[in-house]
Write a structure and sequence with these properties.
The complex is a heterodimer. By secondary structure, chain A is α/β, with parallel strands linked by helices. Chain A has helices at about 5-15, 45-55, 80-85, 120-125, 160-170, 210, 230-240, 260-270, and strands spanning about 20-35, 40-45, 60-65, 95, 100-105, 105-115, 130-140, 150-155, 175-185, 215-220, 230, 250-255, 275-280, 295-300, 305-310, 315-320. By secondary structure, chain B is of the alpha/beta class. The chains are: A alpha/beta, B alpha/beta. The interface of A and B includes residues 283 and 295 of A. FE2/S2 (inorganic) cluster (FES) binds near residues 283, 289, 290, 293 and 311 of chain A.
């Protein structure tokens, strides 16, 4: 019921030259663990926040203030994060959205996250009814090319969030075939809701988050504990080898560790496939004030490079323009 | 009815609607904060550092958070003087706040060139001389640590500035900040900005490498506030108290209480830097908070706070 509404609101916001982002209070609807160290938090907006977030484009992100949230009890903090967890934080943290749902006047967003330090540990403690300050929507999302026939999603780690959201949008394009390639070190490091389906290497509806939008998925694990043994990039290469579509009709969307993005960019370049990558940088502000989030880019047709800002010019970039730091 | 508080101040001969400025490098070139707050509510606006030629800045990582602070090594990345004049001056011209262009360079001639080219612009009230950036190889901080060089560059840039005001921004990374402050004041500085970031380092114990690509960076945010308050008070007592040179106090200000503390220590006005990153409406809130404080304490003019330390 919600989607047609979403697009009409989106158009209105994009034509309006009023503000396209802001600071909003969001209410925590739920916050649940979906596997060891992986969580999904659902936040609700009303009023202006709802109006802006209804037009959220997959790949955009938010900056959340977690400085006021309490830390979990020491015994809930993984040993290796205990020292870091005590650090008092001031900066907000960037997170992508895994889902946006418009329910009348309220817009709910969902974030998939893992605990890696003081802010994400505090996120774990958010409870239903808590209020958090959120800045967004930020950055430029994925550019959805309706003329393509096949969209391949390269998913690494927390890249699962924004690419689930993207899969939902791509599924609305008639005739578009979408396949997600999701990788992790081993089966228990896959940041998806259980139970999983059948993991045979051909595309299947094995991952709930993707099957919801009729997107098939292929799982790759480094240790072979599920699906293809090896990296996402290897799984995608072998899929491409037997793919009948013309390369110009394919587009690859990637979000994950920079190493994976660099390899995908190379594969795409070699085969002449368009490819968009979502980059991550340490961000102090997320709104274009500080220049800490620099991404080195090539000047077209030269060896010269310059810096673009991940938060403002990205986080999604054309894979060919980025100079990856490995 | 609440008593009316006069928030206006006289800053080096310029009348400002209130004592709150943005800090250089933390609020873009012009209207970047405009999406979050009404920038006309600012007393003063200080731009990102501008150099003659565009600067790419340092490699990444350029930033790492520390306990109640952050370390940055942006490396004075900026669009350069020509683009600044073409694209940003027209936006700055519409601003109600007094605009100061922060000037950076690698040689004294660079500083002079930027200043001379902008001295005729009606959009700006003056300049802030950045001789205190810890994140570039040449220029920057190397001018700011030696009183003889501070004297020389201040005198030359003051001349280039014509009738525009000159704020000299000092580094705290010196043995005795009063010496550099005095050198600036004696050579024509109309105001002093205290302080820039503290040179600092964060090391990753797994890799044993510094986290920032530049190895070192400048520490800012609440972590540095007590040190900055001390330095403002020191310079106020030892250098500016009996002159008409105001101090623009900054370093870790995140709320009105912090701003008031700087003013009591001797600052005439304050700048807000890092706080705008996590709360983009900080400046506006601080102006309101100062007003409330004065109302509660029956202070009729905010300028009474300056140097009121017991
Ligand atoms: C645009 C964008 C979207 C993101 N989306 C998500 C998401 O949907 N889900 C999610 O779980 N995480 C996401 N992240 C990452 C998330 O912001 C970090 O995990 C979070 O900031 C960690 O904060 P912390 O205080 O818990 O840990 P910190 O102590 O800040 O960091 C933990 C470790 O990760 C490293 N690190 C932190 N941030 C970065 C970065 N940006 N790039 C490289 N290394 C980093 C640090 O060096 C440190 O070793 C995103 C980041 C960006 C830039
Ligand atoms: C990301 C960042 C960039 C900065 N860039 C500049 C700059 O270009 N020129 C300058 O004079 N100071 C620069 N500064 C220093 C600030 O203006 C200010 O002196 C310092 O951060 C202390 O104030 P704060 O604690 O309120 O941030 C920068 C600070 C930060 C954090
Ligand atoms: S994070 Fe501050 S400019 Fe991008």
């Amino acid at each position: 019921m919600t989607r047609p509404f979403l697009f009409s609101v989106w158009n209105r916001i994009m034509c309006d030259d009023g503000s396209k982002k802001g600071i909003f209070e969001a209410k925590v609807n739920s916050n649940r663990c979906i596997g060891e160290g992986f969580y999904r938090v659902n936040l609700g907006f009303c009023g202006d926040g709802a109006r802006l977030f209804a037009g959220f484009i997959p790949g955009q992100f938010v900056e959340i203030d977690l400085s006021g949230a309490p830390l979990p009890a020491m015994d809930k903090i993984p040993e290796k994060l205990r020292d870091a967890s005590g650090r008092s934080i001031i900066l907000r943290r960037p997170f992508s959205l895994a889902d946006v749902e418009v329910c009348g006047d309220v817009v709910n967003i969902e974030i998939l996250y893992c605990c890696v330090g003081p802010a994400s540990l505090r996120m774990m403690e958010l409870k239903e009814g808590n209020v958090v300050s959120v800045i967004g929507p930020l950055g430029n999302g994925f550019d959805i090319d309706k003329n393509k026939k096949v969209a391949l999603l390269a998913v690494g780690g927390m890249g699962a969030g924004p690419l689930q959201h993207l899969a939902r949008e791509l599924a609305k394009i008639p005739g578009m075939e979408v396949v997600a390639f999701a990788g992790a070190q081993s089966v228990d490091r896959l940041p998806f809701e259980k139970p999983f389906g059948d993991f045979s290497a051909r595309p299947t509806l094995c991952l709930n988050e993707f099957s919801k939008s009729a997107t098939k998925s292929i799982v790759a694990t480094d240790d072979g504990s599920a699906g293809f043994k090896g990296f996402v990039t290897g799984a995608m290469e072998s899929w491409l080898d037997s793919c009948k579509a013309e390369m110009k009709d394919i587009i690859i969307y990637c979000c994950g560790p920079e190493m994976m993005l660099a390899t995908m960019a190379e594969i795409a370049e070699k085969r002449g496939i368009d490819c968009q990558v979502s980059m991550e940088r340490r961000m102090a502000c997320g709104i274009g004030l500080c220049q800490s989030c620099a991404v080195e880019c090539r000047k077209k047709g030269t060896d010269e490079t310059f810096y673009k800002m991940c938060c403002k010019d990205g986080p999604v970039f054309d894979s060919r323009e980025v100079v990856y730091t490995l | 009815m609440k008593n009316i508080v006069d928030l206006s101040i006289d800053f080096a001969g310029i009348r400002l609607s209130n004592p709150v400025f943005t800090a250089s490098g933390t609020c873009g070139y012009a209207d970047e904060l405009g999406e979050f707050m009404d920038i006309d509510k600012l007393g003063g606006f200080i731009t990102k550092s501008i150099s003659v030629k565009p600067r790419k800045g340092n490699a990444t990582p350029r930033m790492v958070e520390t306990d109640s602070g952050m370390l940055n090594a942006i490396g004075l990345a900026n669009i350069g003087l020509d683009r600044f004049i073409e694209e940003k001056i027209p936006v700055l011209a519409k601003m109600k706040a007094a605009v100061f262009v922060n000037v950076a360079g690698t040689t004294i001639d660079d500083y002079i060139e930027v200043t001379e080219k902008l001295a005729g612009e009606n959009a700006i009230a003056g300049f802030e001389l950045n001789i205190s950036c810890p994140n570039v190889k040449e220029g920057g901080i190397s001018f700011g640590t030696d009183p003889v060089q501070v004297a020389d560059i201040t005198a030359k840039v003051k001349k280039a500035a014509g009738d525009k005001k000159l704020i000299v921004k000092l580094t705290p990374t010196v043995t005795n900040i009063s010496e550099t402050a005095l050198a600036a004041v004696e050579n024509g500085a109309d105001a002093l900005s205290l302080v820039n970031t503290f040179t600092a380092m964060v090391i990753d114990i797994e890799t044993r490498k510094p986290v920032l690509a530049n190895r070192t960076g400048g520490l800012s945010g609440p972590a540095i506030k007590p040190m900055a308050v001390y330095l403002v008070n020191k310079v106020y007592n030892e250098v500016t108290k009996n002159t008409d040179v105001p101090i623009l106090g900054l370093g870790g200000i995140r709320n009105a209480g912090d701003a008031i503390e700087f003013m009591i220590a001797g600052a005439t006005a304050v700048s807000v830097g890092t706080a705008s990153f996590f709360e983009p409406r900080s400046c506006e809130r601080i102006v309101k908070g100062i007003e409330k404080f004065c109302q509660a304490k029956n202070i009729s003019a905010v300028r009474e706070l300056t140097g009121s330390i017991e």
